[in-house]
């Protein structure tokens, strides 16, 4: 992705000028090129093109903690979003959904950023200030059957009203969902009545949509606790279930355990889970622990039409996103695994947030220290969160990497289990190491 900023615009007082200041502060190698803003009014088609460019730009910088903690940078992006959509600052009503479909209507400004909207929702629900940081806002697309496909977690520098209305479709909604991965933090939330209700509603919803794996007996027990309105007991039982608190993505394709393998990816409990159906076997699951991922990156490409060349006048191919991570398969063997999915960026952000949480926990901090706080009207990060760094980005995986070995030996390199079988998660000793990555011994495999 390369966009040029004309010198005449880059020194002006608008978002281009902010880009110039930021490049001076952080360097051109850190800050991607910003989509230029034309001097004249944009046509509807040009507005949509610039919206897409701005979205790609924000995706490119989302995972850089240095930029993410910069109020100058966040202010620059907020102005850019308003300028692109030509949205004046005014008070509006914004609808936010809870996991059970309940609607929360809040009055916000079009210029309010994610944290402002989150605080407004919390105030409307009577959620205490010290629990706000345990939840986040997500942009989702509602399918015809009423289920949600998660597009992304709304970042601090986003303007939720602008983000959802710029898509110009009633399919897109904003949903409130818990933002942490370690279920141990549930205890903090469950102490409060509103927090308990939010967790309960999310868990019931996840079970109903099949995100949490439940046996018939467990389902019977959960149903009994629901009828008794025993919410805490219900959650305690749910915490023992496979994929509790996970975020599930749409069906996609991976090159593991073999090329073009249809999989369903879920993120949670410091791992990526890939569910797949082996030839002649039941549904199986492979688990990739974040502590064994040396690094990862998201790449995009536009597949060429059949024949290998594009011809003038033909439409652009759909952009294909891939999440590739280098995984420690055995003590001395690293291997790239690639997932092809439109939600690859969302998967990457989930990985980063799991690493952040592990690193804060390893340093002896608490999740409360990861929350952003207002000081003099400005959002700042705590020292413990600023210390968390993103993993290094490597070049794209080598297309000529060694061919796949036998399926059985390939699967033996990861934690593999049948759906519904007892959990065989790695022990808590996995949660440590530089950037949350650690070497493993043969006894761990």
Protein architecture, described:
Strands 6, 7, 8, 9, 10, 11, 12, 13 and 16 form a nine-stranded antiparallel beta sheet that branches. The protein has 14 helices and 16 strands. The longest helix is centred in the C-terminal third of the chain and has 19 residues, at 344-362. With 445 residues, it is of the alpha+beta class. Helix 2 runs antiparallel to helix 5 (71-85), helix 3 packs antiparallel against helix 5 (71-85) and helix 9 crosses helix 11 (231-239). 32% of the residues lie in helices and 22% in strands. This is Sorting nexin-17. Keywords: Cytoplasm, Cytoplasmic vesicle, Endosome, Lipid-binding, Membrane, Protein transport, Transport. Its main location: membrane. Pfam families: PX, SNX17-27-31_F1_FERM, SNX17-31_F2_FERM, SNX17_FERM_C.
């Amino acid at each position: 992705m390369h966009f040029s900023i004309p010198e005449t615009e880059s020194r002006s007082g608008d978002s281009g000028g902010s880009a110039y200041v930021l490049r001076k502060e952080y360097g051109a190698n850190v800050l991607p090129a910003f989509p230029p803003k034309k001097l004249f009014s944009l046509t509807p088609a040009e507005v949509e093109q610039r919206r897409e460019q701005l979205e790609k730009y924000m995706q490119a910088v989302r995972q850089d903690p240095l930029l993410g903690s910069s109020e100058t940078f966040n202010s620059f992006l907020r102005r850019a979003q308003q300028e692109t959509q030509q949205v004046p600052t005014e008070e509006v009503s914004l609808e936010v959904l809870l996991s059970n479909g309940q609607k929360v209507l809040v009055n916000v400004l079009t210029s309010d950023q994610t944290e402002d909207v989150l605080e407004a929702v919390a105030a409307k629900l009577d959620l205490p200030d010290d629990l706000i940081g345990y939840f986040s806002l997500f942009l989702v697309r509602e399918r015809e059957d009423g289920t949600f496909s998660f597009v992304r977690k709304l970042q601090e520098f986003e303007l939720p009203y602008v983000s959802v209305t710029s898509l110009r479709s009633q399919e897109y909604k904003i949903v409130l969902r818990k933002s942490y991965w370690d279920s141990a933090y549930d205890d903090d939330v469950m102490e409060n009545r509103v927090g308990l209700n939010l967790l309960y509603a999310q868990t019931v919803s996840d079970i109903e949509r099949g995100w949490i794996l439940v046996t018939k007996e467990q389902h019977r027990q959960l149903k009994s606790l629901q009828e008794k309105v025993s919410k805490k007991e219900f959650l305690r039982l749910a915490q023992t279930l496979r994929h509790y608190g996970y975020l599930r993505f749409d069906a996609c394709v991976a090159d593991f355990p073999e090329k073009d393998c249809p999989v369903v990816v879920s993120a949670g409990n410091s791992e990526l889970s890939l569910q797949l159906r082996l030839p002649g076997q039941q549904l199986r699951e492979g688990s990739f622990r974040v502590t064994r991922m040396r690094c990862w990156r998201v790449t995009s490409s536009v597949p060429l039409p059949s024949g290998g060349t594009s011809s003038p006048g033909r439409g652009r191919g759909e952009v294909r996103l891939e999440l590739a991570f280098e995984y420690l398969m055995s003590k001395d063997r690293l291997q790239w695994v690639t997932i092809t999915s439109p939600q690859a960026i969302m998967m990457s952000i989930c990985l980063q947030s799991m690493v952040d949480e592990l690193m804060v926990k390893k340093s002896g901090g608490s999740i409360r220290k990861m929350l952003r706080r207002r000081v003099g009207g400005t959002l700042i990060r705590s020292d413990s969160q600023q210390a968390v760094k993103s993993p290094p980005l490597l070049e794209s995986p080598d297309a000529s990497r060694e061919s796949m070995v036998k399926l059985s030996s390939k699967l033996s390199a990861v934690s593999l289990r049948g759906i519904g079988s007892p959990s065989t998660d790695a022990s808590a000793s996995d949660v440590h190491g530089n950037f949350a990555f650690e070497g493993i011994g043969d006894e761990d495999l």
